[in-house]
Amino acid sequence: MARGLACVFVANHTSMIDFIILEQMTAFAVIMQKHPGWVGLLQSTILESVGSIWFNRSEAKDREIVAKKLRDHVQGADNNPLLIFPEGTCVNNHYTVMFKKGAFELGCTVCPIAIKYNKIFVDAFWNSRKQSFTMHLLQLMASLAVVCDVWYLEPQNLKPGETPIEVRVRDIISVRAGLKKVPWDGYLKYSRPSPKHRERKQQSFAESVLRRLEENEI
Fold first, then answer.
1. Fewest CB within a 10 Å sphere: which of 12, 66, 101, 137?
2. What whole-number distance in Å separates Cα of residue 23 and Cα of residue 26?
3. In DSSP terms, which residues pair with 151 in a beta bridge?
4. What are phi and psi of 33, to 5 degrees?
5. Bridging pattern class, strands 147-152 and 109-118
6. What is the mean pLDDT of residues 43-47?
7. Which pTM value belongs to this model?
């Protein structure tokens, strides 16, 4: 899509290297969680040069500020195309979790991108709860190759009477990459269910087992 047209590119998310791979097409600006350490240094130097936008999940006020920055960016004729990963977290490349609505409320064309990694040499999924990005990157660099397919799909626009199009765009990406859609928020992996919730689920399961046993006895 030509520079100057109001649009946003959205893709499913498996690893921070998704951005590196997609940068081979054009100099995307990306919206990303602010990171500490050497990744943060790269963000504040190299990635800021392409107009990338940072946020902090712990700062509620950041949401309004970032939303305005996104709208301003897509309307800027001389800005690099904006790339957003609407899942908001890395997913294991077997599924797509719920897309955040923010990327689809900018009043512009949405250009879907589907990414599917081949695990023949290495699993490109970054599980940030179990592995630092440094170790993840070293693992990828030590492998023979990182293999993936990337599809740039038909641009999508909001249809008359349609609500935000994140569901339709997620369907398009999931079908093209062969990913299963699940009704989960990606942030769930950062939280644990409460003891009361676990107890209710356990009780419900026990009751269902007892009912089946009683039915079999009858």
1. 101
2. 5
3. 114
4. -60, 135
5. antiparallel
6. 72
7. 0.76
The Cβ-side half-sphere exposure at 179, using a 13 Å CA radius, reads 29
pLDDT of residue 172: 95
Position 33 pLDDT exceeds 80:
no
**Hey, what amino acid is at 150?**
V
Of 96, 83, 104, whose CA–CA distance to 1 is shortest? 83
Model pLDDT for residues 152-163, shown as the tens digit of each residue: 999 999 888 777
Per DSSP, the residues of the chain read --TTS-EEEEE--S-THHHHHHTTTS--EEEEE---HHHHHHHHHTGGGGT-EEE-TT-TTHHHHHHHHHHHHHH-TTSPPEEE-TT-S---SSEE-PPPGGGG-SSSEEEEEEEEEETTS------TTTS-HHHHHHHHHHSS--EEEEEEPPPB-PPTT---THHHHHHHHHHHHT-EE----GGGGGS---HHHHHHHHHHHHHHHHHHHHHHH-
Residue given tokens 């008359």 in the structure block: 160
Q: What does the block give as tokens for 207?
A: 């009751």
Closest CA relative to residue 8, chosen from 130, 112, 78: 112
CA distances from 148 to 13, 60, 163, 215 (A): 13, 35, 32, 50
